[in-house]
Amino acid sequence: MLKWFGAFSRERAARTPGEAIRNPDYPVDWCVAALLYCSVYADNAAAYEEELEFDALLTRARSFESIHPDFVSRYIANFTDILKDHDTVLPLADIALQNMPADPEISAAVFAQCADVMFADSKLVENELAFLDHLAAGLNLPEDTKEEILQVIKWKHAYGC
């Protein structure tokens, strides 16, 4: 599962020319940042704790360390532009999911990070649970893997870790 950290540039470099991302405007780091952003707003409201977790992930995760902060700002502006005419995060999530690599370890790690963002405020509402199901399906995450990840994230937040 820890393959996620720093894996994006290696994953992209390891592709053969026929395996290119469907849309080069959406590199893997953009997709992961988009899914994290969607996790903050999955319930149509951003809790302070969720925003803090999102910001922390974008600044401390090794996969984002080579991205200049201005570039992250452009990503976020792009996310808000995509969502401006929608009342749900699903259009942005679907773009990201369609352009994610088909790697089960990266998928599990991204799902865990998204779940961690959503659990940051210590509660999950119906829209967030539905988004987690949509995310797991879009990442082709097996049900048992999804449940194991959610249980670990629940323990993490239950014990204040």
Overview of the structural elements:
By secondary structure, the protein is mostly helical. Helices cover 64% and strands 0% of the residues. It has eight helices and no strands. The protein is globular and about 35 Å long.
In brief, what are we looking at here?
The chain has 161 residues and is mostly helical.
Count of beta strands? 0
Characterize the biggest β-sheet. Answer: none
- Poorly predicted spans: 1-21
Residues in helices, as a percent range: 55-70%
Order of helices and strands: HHHHHHHH
What fraction of the residues are assigned to beta strands by DSSP? under 5%
Average pLDDT rating = 83
What is the CA–CA distance across the termini?
Answer: 18 Å
Total number of helices: 8
Shape: globular
Structural class: mainly alpha
Rg result: 15 Å
